[in-house]
Design goal:
The structure is a single chain. The chain is α/β, with parallel strands linked by helices and 404 residues long. The chain contains 16 helices and 15 strands. The protein folds into 2 domains: 98 residues, Urease, subunit C, domain 1 (Roll), CATH 2.30.40.10; 291 residues, Alpha-Beta Barrel (TIM Barrel). Helix 5 crosses helix 6. The longest helix is centred in the middle third of the chain and has 18 residues. This is Imidazolonepropionase.
C-alpha cells in the first residue's frame, strides 16, 4: 500500500485528465490518468489527497543562487543608476568584495537567519530544490561558515539543497596581484579541506575579465574532478572568455549567464550535454543589452534552465516565478520552455537525475497550482498561485494570500 495518493489533479504532459499520483517512501510510485488506476484509491494508499482539479507540476528548482551572504549593495545600485559600470565598481573595491567584508563580519546565526527568510520566499512559490553557492568569504573560515549555513538550511526546511563551492569568485585583498597563488590556495588547501568535511557537492568558477582566467578555471576544475566533484562555470556574462567551451571539455553540469556565448561555444555545450543556465534577473538589473543566443541554443538543442541568481549585487531577486515571466518577455522563451527551465532542465543543471519530472521512481517533489492553464505561471506578475507542495513525499500547505 502506498503512503499517499493525489487524485483529481491535472497533469502537464498531455495525459488524459484528471490524473493521479501515488507516493511511496518519498518517491513517485505511480502517475497517470486516474481512470487507469487498478483499484479504488482508498485501497491503494493510506492517505488520499484531493487535488480538486488543480494543475500539478514538478517542484520548481532554482539552480543558481548565492543565497547566503551578509549586508546588501543598495548603494552600488544607486551608483549604477548614476552611470558607474559594474566593472568599475568592482575594480574600486565594491561588488563582490564589499559583500565579502559583510559576510566575514556576520556570525553563522546571523547568516542563517537572513538566508532562511530568503529561502522561505522561494519555497512559498513551489520551489522544492535549490543550489546555494559559497564565494562571499574567500577565506577558509568564511567559506566554511557559508557552506555550514547552507547545510543547516536543508536540515531546517527539508528542501533539497546543492552546496556549491565558489571560492574562485573574486580575488580577496590578501592575495592582491597574486591570483595564481590564490588559485593554488583553493586547490591545495580550501577545496580539499571543505570536501573532506562533507560540505561540498559541486564546484564553480567565475571565469571573466574581472574574475579568473581560463587557465585558472581549468586548474580548479581539475582539482574538483580529482575529488570526484562535478563542476560548473560563470561564463560569457560580460565578455567572451570561452569559458563555456572549457565547461564542455570538462563535462561541466552547466555554464551560466552566457550573454556573450558564440556558436562554437554552443556547439561544444551541445556535444557535452552541458546545460545553459540563463539568468534574466541579472540581465535586467545590470541593464545588459546583449541577449543570450537563444536561437543558437535551440538550433543545437542545448537544454535551457532558468534561475534567480539571487545575490545582493546583481540580482536581488526573491521570485523564480518572476524569472519565468522575464525569460519569456525578455529572452523570448515560450511558457513551455520557461517551465522546463525551472523543472527538468534546472534539475539537470545540478546533476539531479531524479528531480524535476513527474515519473515513476522520481523524487516525490511536486507543486499544485490554482491556475486555469499552465501558461499562467509565466504570464502573471506578482501573483503566487501555488496552493501546496509535496517535498520528498510530504504534503506542505502554502499560506494563501489571494488578490484575485
Amino acid at each position: 500500500m502506498w503512503d499517499s495518493i493525489w487524485i483529481n489533479v491535472l497533469l502537464p504532459d498531455g495525459r488524459d485528465n484528471p490524473g493521479a499520483i501515488g507516493v511511496q517512501d518519498g518517491k513517485i510510485a505511480w502517475v497517470g490518468p486516474q481512470a487507469s488506476l487498478t483499484a479504488a484509491p482508498e485501497t491503494l494508499a493510506k492517505t488520499i489527497y484531493n487535488g480538486a482539479n488543480r494543475w500539478v507540476t514538478p517542484g520548481l528548482v532554482d539552480c543558481h543562487t548565492h543565497l547566503v551572504y551578509g549586508g546588501n549593495r543598495a548603494r552600488e545600485f544607486e551608483m549604477r543608476l548614476q552611470g558607474v559600470s559594474y566593472e568599475d565598481i568592482a575594480k574600486a573595491g565594491g561588488g563582490i568584495l564589499s559583500t565579502m567584508s559583510a559576510t566575514r563580519a556576520a556570525t553563522e546565526d546571523e547568516l542563517f537567519a537572513s538566508s532562511y527568510r530568503r529561502l522561505q520566499n522561494l519555497m512559498a512559490e513551489g520551489v522544492t530544490g535549490i543550489e546555494i553557492k559559497s564565494g562571499y568569504g574567500l577565506d577558509m573560515e568564511t567559506e566554511r561558515k557559508m557552506l555550514v549555513v547552507a547545510t543547516k538550511l536543508a536540515q531546517a526546511t527539508g528542501i533539497r539543497i546543492q552546496r556549491t563551492f565558489l571560492g574562485a569568485h573574486a580575488l580577496p585583498p590578501e592575495y592582491k596581484n597574486r591570483s595564481d597563488d590564490y588559485i593554488t590556495h583553493i586547490c591545495e588547501d580550501m577545496l580539499p579541506a571543505l570536501h573532506e568535511a562533507g560540505l561540498v557537492d559541486a564546484v564553480d568558477v567565475f571565469c571573466e575579465r574581472i574574475g579568473f582566467t581560463l587557465a585558472q578555471a581549468e586548474r580548479v576544475f581539475q582539482k574538483a574532478q580529482q575529488l570526484g566533484l562535478p563542476v560548473k562555470i560563470h561564463a560569457e556574462q560580460l565578455s567572451n572568455q570561452h569559458g563555456s567551451a572549457l565547461a564542455a571539455r570538462s563535462r561541466a553540469l552547466s555554464a551560466d549567464h552566457l550573454e556573450y556565448l558564440d556558436e562554437d561555444g554552443v556547439k561544444a555545450m551541445a556535444a557535452s550535454g552541458t546545460i545553459a543556465v540563463l539568468l534574466p534577473g541579472a540581465y535586467y538589473f545590470l541593464r545588459e543589452t546583449r541577449l543570450p543566443p537563444i536561437d543558437l541554443l535551440r538550433k543545437h538543442s542545448v537544454p535551457i534552465a532558468i534561475a534567480t541568481d539571487h545575490n545582493p549585487g546583481t540580482s536581488p531577486v526573491h521570485s523564480l516565478l518572476l524569472m519565468m515571466n522575464m525569460a519569456c518577455t525578455i529572452f523570448h522563451l515560450t511558457p513551455q520552455e520557461s517551465l522546463a527551465g525551472v523543472t527538468c532542465h534546472a534539475a539537470a543543471a545540478l546533476g539531479w537525475n531524479d528531480s524535476g519530472k513527474l515519473e515513476q521512481g522520481a523524487r516525490a517533489d511536486f507543486a499544485l497550482w490554482d491556475i486555469g492553464e499552465l501558461a499562467e505561471l509565466s504570464y502573471s506578475i506578482g501573483h503566487n498561485a501555488c496552493y501546496a507542495v509535496v517535498r520528498n513525499g510530504l504534503y506542505v500547505a502554502i499560506p494563501q494570500s489571494r488578490s484575485d
